[in-house]
Amino acid sequence: MGSKSPEGHRDTLHGSGGTTSIFASNPPKPDAASGLLHGKLEGQDNDDDDEDSNKGTGSDIESGITPLESGGQKKKRRNNRGRKKKKAVIGQQTYPPRIALANIFANKPYPEGQIVDYVQDENLQRTTAEELRHQAALGNMDDDFLKDYREAAEVHRQVRKHAQDIAKPGISMSDLAQNIEDGVRSLTGHQGIEAGDALKAGLAFPTGLCLNHVGAHWTPNPGGKEVILQYDDVLKVDFGVHVNGRIVDSAFTVASNPIYDNLLESVRAATNTGLREAGIDARIDHISGAIQEVMESYEVEINKKVIPVKAVKNITGHNILRYKIHGDKQVPFVKSKTTQRMEEGDIFAIETFGSTGRAYLRDDIGVYGYGRNENVSTAGLHHASARSLLKTIDNNFGTLVFSRRYLEHMGVKNYHLGMRSLVSNGIVDCYAPLVDVPNSYIAQFEHTVLLRPNCKEIVSRGDDY
C-alpha cells in the first residue's frame, strides 16, 4: 500500500551508504509444502454421477477405484442418498483456499520467508545506543512475532495464488475483491463480523485493484459501477493481511497482453533492487537512487511508440508499525533528500511503481477507504450517528484502514451521514484513488521485509515474485 510522500521529499542530493546483497535465498516452496492442493476435499461427494460411465468420477479418483471393475465390466452407479460426507483431511487445503491455516498447520511452524544474511561492513561500528536498540529488537522479535508474521505471509501467498488464477479478462473487480477478502478471512479463521474479531486477524487495509493509469488506492465500493477486467488492462493487486496487528503488505501486477512485459519487469527488478539494498544502517537516499536507476533503464513499446519507464515521484514505500500500515519512514522510488537510515527491528514495505505517463499521481474522485485519526479529540462530536459509528470503528478496526465493503460485511447500515461528520471533524481520514494522466499505464510490485538482528527476512516472498 503506497504512502504519499511530502512535498520537497523528492529533491536530489548526493550521498551514498552501506549496501547489502542477496547471496542466499530459499528454494521455492511446492504447493504441498504449504498445504495447498487442488481439487475437492477427500470424500466430498459429486453430483455428476449421471455422466457417461466410461469417465472416472471424482469419487472414483479419490477412492482409487478405476472406471472398469476387475472383470472388465463397467462399474455400477452407487446410490449416494443418505451418505454422510467425510470430514476434510487434516493438513490439506481446498481450492479456492478456505480452511483456516491454524487447522492446516496445527502445531507445525509456518514457512519462513526468504532469509538473507547481512553483508558485514567494518566501517559501520555500533554505538552504545545501537547496542541498546539491538537488545530491544531481540526482545520484540520473539517467537510470537515471527509466528504471527509468517502466518500472515502464508495466508497472503495462498490467497494471491488463487487471485492470480482467476484474474483473467472478463472477471469483475467486485468478484475478484470478494474472492481475496473471503480467502483472507477464511484462512486467518476470523470472519470479522463479531465485535473485535477483525482486530485479532484478517484484512489489514482495503483490497486495492487499480487499472491502468490508476496508481493506487482504488477498491470496488458497494453500489458502484461494475468494472470488468479487459485483455489490454494492467491490473495492480495490493492487499494486506494481519495477525495480531502484525501486517504483511504485498502487491503484484498482472497483464494479459505481453506488450506490457517490460513495464512489469522494470518494476519487479526495481523492487528486488530495493530489497537487496535494504538492511540495518542502510541509507534510504542510497536505496532510492538504486531503485530509480534500475527502473528507468527500461522502456516499453506500446502502439509502435517507445516509451521510457519512469519511477513515480510522489508516493513511497514505508515502514510498518503494529496496527498501522504507514509508519514515519519512507522509501521513495527516486533519488531523495533524506538522512534517514533503516534500523534494526524495522519492518518495511519495499514497493515500487513505474509509469508510462507523467509519473506524478494526483487525487481522483471517489473513496478508497477510511482511517482513524487517533490524535484528534472527539469532544466536539455531537451527532449520535457519528458517535455510534466511531464506537464501531474503534472496536473493530482501531487504526487499521478499512473500506465501505468492510463496514457492510459487518452489517453496518446507514453510516454515510455519520461518516461525513467524522471526516469533517478530522476524526477519520478519507483516502481517495491516486491517478496518473489518462491513457498511461502503471505497474507495482511490493514485499514486506523484517530487519532482524542477524538477517533480513523477506517474509512475503513466494514462488511467484
TrEMBL record:
It catalyses: Release of N-terminal amino acids, preferentially methionine, from peptides and arylamides. This is Methionine aminopeptidase 2. It comes from Aaosphaeria arxii CBS 175.79. Pfam families: Peptidase_M24 (PF00557). One of its GO terms (molecular function) is metal ion binding. The keyword Cytoplasm applies. Its main location: cytoplasm. Its EC number is 3.4.11.18. Its cofactor is Co(2+); Zn(2+); Mn(2+); Fe(2+). A divalent metal cation 1 binds at residues 238, 249, 446. Cotranslationally removes the N-terminal methionine from nascent proteins. The N-terminal methionine is often cleaved when the second residue in the primary sequence is small and uncharged (Met-Ala-, Cys, Gly, Pro, Ser, Thr, or Val). Residues 149-368 form the Peptidase M24 domain. Coiled coil: none annotated.
